[in-house]
């Protein structure tokens, strides 16, 4: 050819398409694993706050955070399942170190920042999925963003009450039950054991 470039034949064309498909798949797996790391961090961070608050006798606040930690476990599983469907390997890494033993006045501001950051990053991850033609994963991010927004609203609300009402608000939460109203059937309970 006079311009010195050869036109790709059909085989080469197919190979190029395969390569770019593989690259797109890898890009989606990468953001899913980034998100999974964030969930694994949130789970352990929130569990730590759950039993910390329970120990400080803020039962109701402890119970709510326990439920939120369970939501994050579901998110971590949702991301892992999608990674497996795409042929990837779900990470077991956490995005950050857990801060243990936070004061009640710190917890809700901290968590609302965490959720805010998560929504921001998941929105970018959702865009990466769409750029790479993966609508299914984009929709998964969309659904999880909605759930993180519910977490954010709760954390913001409590933080606001603590800021405005301080000790009065906390006094009303002291001694409240930590019951979540949930019976979580683990393996043993499902087998009919105790
Ligand atoms: Fe989450
Ligand atoms: Fe969340």
How does this structure look, described?
The chain is mostly helical. It has a single domain (13-190), classed as Up-down Bundle (Ferritin), CATH 1.20.1260.10. The protein is built from six helices and no strands. It has helices at 10-55, 59-85, 104-131, 135-165, 167-173, 187-190. Helix 1 packs antiparallel against helix 2 (59-85) and helix 2 packs antiparallel against helix 4 (135-165). Bound molecules: fe (iii) ion (FE) (2 copies). The site of one fe (iii) ion has 6 residues, from helix 3 and helix 4.
Round the mean pLDDT to the nearest integer and report it.
Answer: 93
Do you know the CATH architecture?
Up-down Bundle
Q: Please give the CATH class.
A: Mainly Alpha
For the terminal residues, how far apart are their CA atoms?
78 Å
Order of helices and strands: HHHHHH
- Give the cofactors and ligands: fe (iii) ion
Largest sheet: none
- Helices, by number, come to 6
Strand fraction band?
A: under 5%
**Helix-residue proportion:** over 70%
CATH topology: Ferritin
Overall 3D form: elongated
Structural class: mainly alpha
State the domain count: 1
CATH homologous superfamily identity:
Ferritin, core subunit, four-helix bundle
Indicate the low-confidence ranges by residue numbers.
Answer: none
State Rg: 22 Å
Number of strands: 0
Comma- or semicolon-separated keywords:
194 residues, mainly alpha, Ferritin, 6 helices, 74% helix, binds fe (iii) ion
Write the layout of secondary structure elements.
Layout: H1 10-55, H2 59-85, H3 104-131, H4 135-165, H5 167-173, H6 187-190
Helix pairs in contact: 1-2, 1-3, 2-4, 3-4
One fe (iii) ion (FE) binds at residues 39, 42, 72, 75, 144, 148.
């Amino acid at each position: 050819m006079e311009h010195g470039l050869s036109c790709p034949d059909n085989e080469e064309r197919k190979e190029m398409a395969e390569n770019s498909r593989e690259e797109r798949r890898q890009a989606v797996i990468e953001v899913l694993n980034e998100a999974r790391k964030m969930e694994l961090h949130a789970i352990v961070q929130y569990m730590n706050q759950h039993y910390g608050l329970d120990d400080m006798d803020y039962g109701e606040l402890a119970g709510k955070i326990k439920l939120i930690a369970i939501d994050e476990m579901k998110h971590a599983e949702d991301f892992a399942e999608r990674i497996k469907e795409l042929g990837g390997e779900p990470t077991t890494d956490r995005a950050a170190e857990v801060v243990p033993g936070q004061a009640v006045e710190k917890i809700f501001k901290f968590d609302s920042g965490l959720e805010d950051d998560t929504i921001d990053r998941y929105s970018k991850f959702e865009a990466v999925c769409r750029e790479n033609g993966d609508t299914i994963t984009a929709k998964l991010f969309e659904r999880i963003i909605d759930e993180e927004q519910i977490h954010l609203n709760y954390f913001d609300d409590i933080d606001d009450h603590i800021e405005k009402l301080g000790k009065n608000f906390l006094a009303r939460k002291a001694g409240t039950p930590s019951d979540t109203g949930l019976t979580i059937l683990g393996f043993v309970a499902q087998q009919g054991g105790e």
